[in-house]
Amino acid sequence: MGESTAIVHAILTIVGVILASIFAAYVIGRMGYVNSVLSNVINSKLEELQTNIKIVAGFYNQTQNEYVIYVKNVGGIEISETDLYNRSEVYIGPYNGYPRMFLISNIASPTTASIVDLDGDSVWSPGETIVIKVPYNTTGLGAVEVKVVLPSGAYTEEVLPG
Q1: What is the total count of domains within the chain?
Q2: What average pLDDT does the chain have?
Q3: pLDDT at residue 162 greater than cutoff 80
């Protein structure tokens, strides 16, 4: 009876070590996955926090029937023009009125706004100003409210003369 008890204990010990090893391998594998997910979330949030823009000037161009808006990247990261196309919006309308939305696009249409990259490198670097042109007729309007919203959720708004 003593020998069989020792053998059973030895087998149970071996089984326990094997199960603990399998569990440890699973936990370590999942920790890598969790670490990867958390890293992606933190990087995404950090990018959002570093994205900041500011409308610095704007006017209505009567000959072209469009608003010309100068927007500066006052954040800490570069923004590619291709990241802006079809994912960024410009809202414009009468002050304290209902705005109209224009999607920033590289395809001209009456419902899209266009970008002019002043240095021509297709990257909106920190400290750089781009020009956004919005086809909007303001006949009879006074001041207009303009809001520019990036895909990250960063936005700027300003009241411009009509």
Answers
A1: 2
A2: 88
A3: no
